[in-house]
């Protein structure tokens, strides 16, 4: 069944309090609920439930027939209900059988929950919709040593704990954890003087790996006070790490539950990227306390109200904690790789969709990352002060409410007096606008002619013009900036802007800071790109100029022509200054990936050939390595860090430049340096970096065996082992390698991290996954069909590996189609996967 935004109706009852009592048992947990309702409109009482064994039902102590409990819904006619009443139910559920990891389940002996989006209905009968908010009172009966729920602890006795959450919340923010856990503890005193007890709960033995998560939490709490004036509102804040989790983490009120890979880290086991993600996601979940929990969503169509804003906030946080330039470039790379890809294919949808079959399929790059970009544009349009005023108004006006994108836009209009009618299209329209620039130059006057166009997306044939903030500067021919950053506001399909009084013709530094999520099409020569790469004052635009130059060369080479010399030449300058900002230099040095090259070829009307792209990229790397061997070797040595490992931006920047150099040098030394680094590295960043080069060089046997011997007992580290092999294998070996690994006794495929490591490692190997014989597609389909009955959410998410298929040749399309049709024909295919496969097939 399809759900439509237009069908939303207010829930006709209000809940005064939700009381829950759990008797925990792996195979038969009893849940007793007492829910106080007050009528506030017309309509029957409709409760949601899924997979519940209903033992009793009552209203105001009068038993109801169990036959009321239908398949998915329990409906009590309004006529049978007084104006205020207490609903009671007792149900039995089976956490051990819950492999879908939705509702209450067991992960390595720990009871835990995941209720967003619609998991609570797997726990008991309830109005499982985000606009129904209530204070919760929770009793847990269990002999597990640690018993946690939302809010503040009220009573703790052996075998029982009571928690009370005074802040009303929707059911998706409910959480319960019970297990043998150990805490890493600290405290935080808020700006008004409230002392908050902080705990990061982990399995016994992991206490030494949770310190960074705790430091990140404290930094997040401080940052949200300093930057947004937001204070924490309970006496305790608990974080729990579990090994089996469908996504990254969950912002349950006062009790965040995390995938352990986003909590546990030591220098020996986690990479710089892992540390940065831990800090970012700890921040993200913490920031949800205000943007998500205190102010939540009216319905799931509004998901980007909390996710777009919270991603935007976590991006600002990381930017403040680390390097703003590097963070911005990383975010643009992610957006392009994941969201532009989504927008260009059969799964395209707006940040605020207006229909869905399975909401869990809409936790997407569009809702999250594009949702954040849209807020970045708003902030640029209204200015920092306008943004701050709008956010203050948002918190003041909507605290305790379940809101919509319309509410969000209204606070910006009211706080700044700006009409945002046209801007709202960014929320309702799918697709990435293509911005075209042509220039006229005469008599010291530069005219910039912009044109915007958005291709149709499924269900949206017409694309009216959007408001596009275009930040730009002008760089003179000798490299000085003749116009500092200026923001143009484009509102028409075509619009020109002119700049007078210029001495010599400047080069436009376009879309500074990536001021809008658009693709750019412009005439620009290699010399001009090289000029920007050398002199642009905006770090993002500088990096982008080099990146475009590299991409142009790679596309030529993949088409069998000469190319790449310009980029190769321009790198001399990058290498000469590399020591000044190693992280930035590493970004400039890294060539566009194969997937990105394929995307660009297809955007220019070609059909990408994965093998040719792979070969072109390797050839380009060899050329660069040969030309710049001395400088690269010098950098490789200079970036070594003898002191203790520190997971900060500076140390990470040096390591990233060292590894970027190593990738080139390995083309020349056959992996000799990588082998030496693998043996001597004392941190996982360099360990993994070296291992990846050894796999690419086909010189990996000893290192892989050594890695497994050293880390075999550490699940998170072994995920890396399972991921890098299919990812870095030569394309013609990748599927075979993935098959071998799938037969490995440690391939615990029911664990989402392990499944994603191996299967996702292969799908991220562009030429390997898109093998011309369709073996990559067959392998993926086989595993999706095996996982679907066990874990539909994780299966459905991985179906998106097929979303780009229509850009490849007919042979590959035919192989992919038959793989997708096999999945579609699986008896009992989940609603999650069925929706994904149907949408993808519709685009073929
Ligand atoms: N709200 C969580 C976050 O962004 C994501 C949880 C989504 N889980 C799911 N099964 N859809 O941090
Ligand atoms: Zn979130």
From TrEMBL:
<feature type="domain" description="Peptidase M1 membrane alanine aminopeptidase">
    <location>
        <begin position="212"/>
        <end position="426"/>
    </location>
</feature>
<feature type="domain" description="Peptidase M1 alanyl aminopeptidase Ig-like fold">
    <location>
        <begin position="431"/>
        <end position="522"/>
    </location>
</feature>
<dbReference type="InterPro" id="IPR027268">
    <property type="entry name" value="Peptidase_M4/M1_CTD_sf"/>
</dbReference>
<dbReference type="InterPro" id="IPR012779">
    <property type="entry name" value="Peptidase_M1_pepN"/>
</dbReference>
<dbReference type="Pfam" id="PF11940">
    <property type="entry name" value="DUF3458"/>
</dbReference>
<dbReference type="GO" id="GO:0016285">
    <property type="term" value="F:alanyl aminopeptidase activity"/>
</dbReference>
<keyword id="KW-0479">Metal-binding</keyword>
<protein>
    <recommendedName>
        <fullName>Aminopeptidase N</fullName>
        <ecNumber>3.4.11.2</ecNumber>
    </recommendedName>
</protein>
<dbReference type="Pfam" id="PF01433">
    <property type="entry name" value="Peptidase_M1"/>
</dbReference>
<dbReference type="InterPro" id="IPR001930">
    <property type="entry name" value="Peptidase_M1"/>
</dbReference>
<dbReference type="InterPro" id="IPR038438">
    <property type="entry name" value="PepN_Ig-like_sf"/>
</dbReference>
<dbReference type="InterPro" id="IPR014782">
    <property type="entry name" value="Peptidase_M1_dom"/>
</dbReference>
<keyword id="KW-0482">Metalloprotease</keyword>
<dbReference type="Pfam" id="PF17432">
    <property type="entry name" value="DUF3458_C"/>
</dbReference>
<keyword id="KW-0645">Protease</keyword>
<dbReference type="InterPro" id="IPR035414">
    <property type="entry name" value="Peptidase_M1_pepN_Ig-like"/>
</dbReference>
<keyword id="KW-0031">Aminopeptidase</keyword>
<comment type="similarity">
    <text>Belongs to the peptidase M1 family.</text>
</comment>
<feature type="domain" description="Aminopeptidase N-like N-terminal">
    <location>
        <begin position="87"/>
        <end position="171"/>
    </location>
</feature>
<dbReference type="InterPro" id="IPR024601">
    <property type="entry name" value="Peptidase_M1_pepN_C"/>
</dbReference>
<dbReference type="InterPro" id="IPR045357">
    <property type="entry name" value="Aminopeptidase_N-like_N"/>
</dbReference>
<keyword id="KW-0862">Zinc</keyword>
<feature type="domain" description="Peptidase M1 alanyl aminopeptidase C-terminal">
    <location>
        <begin position="527"/>
        <end position="842"/>
    </location>
</feature>
<keyword id="KW-0378">Hydrolase</keyword>
<dbReference type="InterPro" id="IPR042097">
    <property type="entry name" value="Aminopeptidase_N-like_N_sf"/>
</dbReference>
<dbReference type="Pfam" id="PF17900">
    <property type="entry name" value="Peptidase_M1_N"/>
</dbReference>
<dbReference type="InterPro" id="IPR037144">
    <property type="entry name" value="Peptidase_M1_pepN_C_sf"/>
</dbReference>
